[in-house]
Write a structure and sequence with these properties.
The protein is mainly beta. It has one domain: YVTN repeat-like/Quinoprotein amine dehydrogenase (Methylamine Dehydrogenase, Chain H, 7 Propeller), CATH 2.130.10.10. It contains three helices and 33 strands. The protein has helices at residues 3-25, 113-116, 159-163; strands spanning 52-57, 67-68, 72-78, 83-90, 96-104, 128-129, 133-137, 142-147, 153-158, 177-179, 182-187, 193-199, 205-211, 227-231, 234-241, 244-248, 255-259, 276-278, 281-286, 296-301, 306-307, 313-317, 328-330, 333-337, 342-347, 353-358, 369-371, 374-378, 383-388, 395-400, 410-412, 415-419, 423-428. A five-stranded mixed beta sheet has the order 14-15-16-17-21, with no helix packed on it.
Length: 430
């Protein structure tokens, strides 16, 4: 066997691995694990409407974030007739590939409509995609699996019919997490809360873990998405809701560890941001938008078993904390963004504050994401700030797009995919 052939095989394998990593890197909300960190080194750092690579209008409205596989970008929307839609667009030029109406419905929630009508609807959870399938969960309770290439329906499960109605103020906002051959769904409500795993190919139940933790009033409301963390080389599913953070074995659903500490002394307490991990530490947030000043961040050392409240809790931080925006953690640093645009940088191991500054984003609900040594923050008004992911937090650029942006960007290769309330667009590094 000649040397040229061996080298060719080697490089083909490398290319295949790189392609697969790229394809799977942002097929889910905030990436494959939920970290919000992209491995790309070629992301754009400045843009405006004149530098948009492509932009397409979307039927209906929604705040679901884009999911990206090797060929396409996927979003969901709800039309005025309450139709629930999954849509696929070409990565390269935004050309519509297919659009499927997968049902009809509205938020399964008891909250007054005037509280959420302008910013929430059933198309708030984000789709999940790999190169074969797309999974879309709606606030109505419908979970579907479609063929990624054709949009053909593979299976459908009505979570409300199967497991009970959602007693949650603003409607279901949690996005499923694909882990191996399972779709993990977290449901935290004032009623029966649970974490469930379904077979990704069939929709059949694999395991279900009921959550029974004390909480009062709106305290159990949680809109956060599960996060995947690695402990001793094994995956754990980490979820937050009510007063607790919990970790589960994705294979069996067994609870690995848990801790209290998130509940706050207010009837308005809630959890929207998802947990994040770095440097052997996991961090979770709780918020109190109605009472002011009670929201906080907590950190735990990974690697514990059972109740780790006393053994593994590391620190608590309670100033300029996020409500809606999930933080991003990398290189031992935790970056957070409060709804009012105040960003903070903390040492994730100690909680030491490195800097605090107000960004020119205005009000921001989108989660932070990072790549290429920078953190990306976007405000509702389309003002996006790129700042250094280090102890300086130096602002690299401030950028402006038209529209209302509640969803979180997807970072893939040399492109940022953004979704406003009514359009999908791509910004590419020139």
């Amino acid at each position: 066997m000649n040397k040229w052939f061996l080298n060719s095989v080697f490089w083909l394998a490398v290319v295949a691995i790189v392609t697969e990593c790229k394809a799977q890197e942002w097929g889910q909300f905030r990436g494959a694990t939920g970290s919000g960190v992209s491995s790309s080194k070629a992301l754009p750092t400045s843009w405006n409407e004149d530098k948009v690579a492509w932009s397409v209008e979307l039927p209906g409205q929604g705040n679901s974030s884009p999911a990206v596989n090797e060929n396409a970008v996927f979003v969901t929307s709800q039309t005025k007739d309450l139709g629930l839609h999954v849509l696929a667009f070409s990565q390269s030029n935004g050309k519509p590939l297919w659009s499927e109406r997968v049902g009809k419905g509205k938020l399964a929630a008891k909250g007054p409509a005037n509280l959420y009508a302008h910013r929430h609807n059933a198309a708030t959870p984000s789709p999940v995609a790999d190169n074969e399938s797309v999974w879309a969960f709606f606030g109505s309770g419908v979970l579907v699996c479609l063929d990624a290439e054709s949009g053909e329906l593979n299976w459908e499960v009505n979570m409300v019919e199967e497991y009970g109605a959602y007693d949650i103020t603003f409607g279901m906002g949690s996005t499923p997490r694909l882990v191996g051959n399972k779709v993990i769904v977290s449901c935290m409500t004032k009623g029966a809360s649970y974490v469930v795993a379904l077979n990704k190919d069939t929709g059949e139940l694999v395991w279900k873990h009921d959550r029974r933790f004390p909480a009062k009033d709106d305290g159990p409301d949680a809109y956060s998405t599960p996060t995947v963390v690695q402990v001793s080389g094994k995956n754990q599913i980490v979820v937050t809701g009510s007063d607790h953070i919990n970790a589960y074995d994705p294979a069996t659903g067994d609870q690995l560890w848990f801790s209290s500490g998130l509940q706050i002394a207010s009837p308005y307490g809630r959890i929207i941001a998802s947990p994040v991990a770095d440097s052997g530490v996991v961090v979770a947030t709780s918020a109190n938008p109605g009472g002011g000043g009670l929201g906080h961040i907590m950190a735990w050392k990974l690697g514990g078993k059972g109740n780790v409240r006393d053994s593994n809790a590391l620190w608590r931080h309670a100033k300029s904390t996020p409500d809606s925006s999930t933080p991003v953690a990398l290189n031992g640093l935790l970056f957070t963004l409060a709804d009012n645009g105040v960003a903070s940088c903390l040492d994730i191991r100690t909680g030491e504050v490195k800097w605090v500054k107000r960004l020119p984003t205005g009000t921001s609900y989108a989660s932070l994401v990072a790549g290429g040594g920078n953190v990306y923050a976007i405000g509702i008004n389309g003002t996006a700030v790129v700042f250094a992911a280090d102890t300086t937090g130096e602002i690299v650029s401030t950028n402006k797009l038209e529209g209302q942006f509640y969803s979180t960007p997807a970072l893939v290769g040399n492109t940022i995919y953004l979704r406003s309330y009514e359009r999908l667009l791509a910004v590419t590094r020139q």
